[in-house]
Structure formats: structure tokens, C-alpha cells
């Protein structure tokens, strides 16, 4: 469990160390000429100043020091400035700044078994220095490995799109903020044991693998063409129905079933054809 320490200011001890260092130099120079005792005192003053200097530490903004005393966790200092601690403490520097992890592009299979390429960008920082220092070995490597595992699990849990799974509530391509929220939640669960706080996680690259990209592009184009044709047919049927109703309501012309069928056929050809229709004048009648 992280414990926050507030050590004493180090400015007073810095002054004391400077005084001891100056005194040791003076006693040494004096002792060489007059007495061996002065030399011994100079040596003791120098050793004492060096010992106290070891207890001084500078903590930069958004940095921390994890302190140990012969293998026992003492606490963590998160305040910035010059401080004095027990010179026998050992310390470990841990940055509290936000880190940006650009994951490498991974080739994995989505839920439907299609090979895809995916990469993410993760913004994280250390929230619990005790866990980061003692619960895992090299927490930065832990972040990289667990992030890759989370991305692979995410890709395998959802289809790339809904071409093969029409009932998929969420897809990787169209999931947007929902997919990012799921990724953040899984990263938080995986990295909480190392005291890591996930600030943001976003998919930065998503595509079909190169070996099937061409086939999938053709499939998407075919799906788009079918959808467009469906809309065209629906619109053409509506227009034909409207035309027949108008002709009947305004008594412009009376058409029997055979003439209606011919008219519907001609209108559907004109409205649904890819090219402009070429008119043909009929000098006779439908029956001649």
C-alpha cells in the first residue's frame, strides 16, 4: 500500500554540510602545520558532511522517490523541492508524468476469423508507486506486454464490420467511442496490479490484412452496389405506383391490365437502367 511521506526541507542541512566542509578544509590546513588532532577532526568533519549530503535529494515536478530502509518500504515522496531524508535510505525514482505508448501494428484474427491489422495509442501514468516499484518487474515492460495482450483480445472479441455478422451490436470499424471505452476498461483491469492509471486509449490503425484486403474491398463494393440498386428499385416502384394512381384519379387515360403491365415494364426500364433510355415511337397500337 502506498504511503506518502513529507520529509523535512533540505536547505538547512545543505548549509550545515557546507559549513562542515569548510571547517574540514580549515582544520586540515591548520592541522598540517600544528597538530595531528586537527587533521583527524578535519577528516571526521569531511566524512560527516559527505554522509549528510547523501541524505539530500531533489525531486522535480511530477516525479517521486520510493524510499526503502534495508529492504523495508518506508514511503513515497511526491512533493517537489529539496529535502533531507535518512542517509541510510535507498531511493528509486519513478516518474508521475503521462506517458504515450504507440503500440506496434498487430496482425490478428477478428471474431469472424478474418485477418486484420490493428494498432492503438495509449496515454497512461503511474498512480500507485508502491505497486509500480514492488508488485511487478519493470513496470514499463509490463505496460507494453499487457497492452498488446489487451489489443489482441479486443480484436478477437468483435468482428471487423457487419458484412458477415449482420446482427453484431458493435464492430471494430464502427464501434467508435464504445470500442475505445471497452479497450480502456480492459487496460485498466490488466494494469491496475502495477498501479497504472489509463487516461486514454484509442485505435490508431485498423484495416484488413494485405492478403485479403483486395477481396474484402470487392465485397464491400458489391454490397454497396446491391444496397444502391435496392434503393433505386424501391424508388422506381413508388414512382410507377404514383404515376398509375394519377392517371386513374384524373381520368387521363383508361388502361387495362395488359397496357398497365406494358407501362410498368417501360417505366421500370427507364428508371432502373444504368444508361439513358432511347425512345422508340410506336405508330401502331399495343395489339398491332
List keywords for this structure.
7 helices, rod-shaped
Brief overview:
With 288 residues, this protein is an alpha+beta fold. Helices cover 48% and strands 22% of the residues.
Give a structural overview.
This protein is α+β, with helices and mostly antiparallel strands and 288 residues long. The chain has 7 helices and 10 strands. It has helices at 11-33, 36-54, 129-135, 139-157, 177-191, 210-249, 257-272, and strands at 8-9, 56-59, 63-69, 72-77, 81-84, 90-95, 99-102, 106-109, 115-126, 196-208. Helix 1 packs antiparallel against helix 2 and helix 6 packs antiparallel against helix 7. The longest helix is centred in the C-terminal third of the chain and has 40 residues, at 210-249. The model has no long low-confidence stretch (mean pLDDT 81).
Q: End-to-end distance, in Å?
A: 98 Å
**How many strands, what sense, and barrel or not for the largest sheet?**
4 strands, antiparallel
Decide which structural class fits the backbone: alpha+beta
Share in helix: 40-55%
How big is the Rg? 39 Å
Global shape: rod-shaped
Q: How many distinct helices?
A: 7
Low-confidence blocks of residues: none
Record field, number of beta strands = 10
* Average pLDDT score: 81
Helix and strand element order: EHHEEEEEEEEHHHEHH
